[in-house]
C-alpha cells in the first residue's frame, strides 16, 4: 500500500506515474490485487521489471546486455528462457 499512496499523491501533483507492478507487494494477495486496481483506476500506468529494463537497455549491442540477461531476465523473466 505504500506504493499506492506514493503513486496516488504523485498523480495529484501532475506526474505521469508508472507502477512497477511485479515488484510491489502487500500483506495479503487481496490487498495487493485491490491496491493495484485502485492505482490503475486513478491512472497509474502498469509496467513490469522486464519491460522497464528492456526500455533502459534500448540497444542490445551494449556491452552490458549479456550481464542483463544473466542477472535480470534469467531470474525474473521467461522471455529469454535462461532458468
Polypeptide structure, described:
The protein is mostly helical and 83 residues long. It has 2 domains: 1-47, no CATH class; 49-83, no CATH class. It is 55% helix and 7% strand. The chain has 4 helices and 2 strands; from the N terminus they run αβαβαα. The protein has helices at 2-12, 29-42, 49-57, 65-76; strands at residues 18-20, 45-47. Strands 1-2 form a two-stranded parallel ribbon. α1 packs parallel to α2 (29-42) and α3 (49-57) packs antiparallel against α4. Residues 1-50 form the Isochorismatase-like domain. This is Putative hydrolase. InterPro entries: Hydrolase_YcaC-like, Isochorismatase-like_dom, Isochorismatase-like_sf.
What's the structural blueprint in terms of helices and strands?
Elements: H1 2-12, E1 18-20, H2 29-42, E2 45-47, H3 49-57, H4 65-76
Parallel strand pairs: 1-2
Helix pairs in contact: 1-2, 3-4
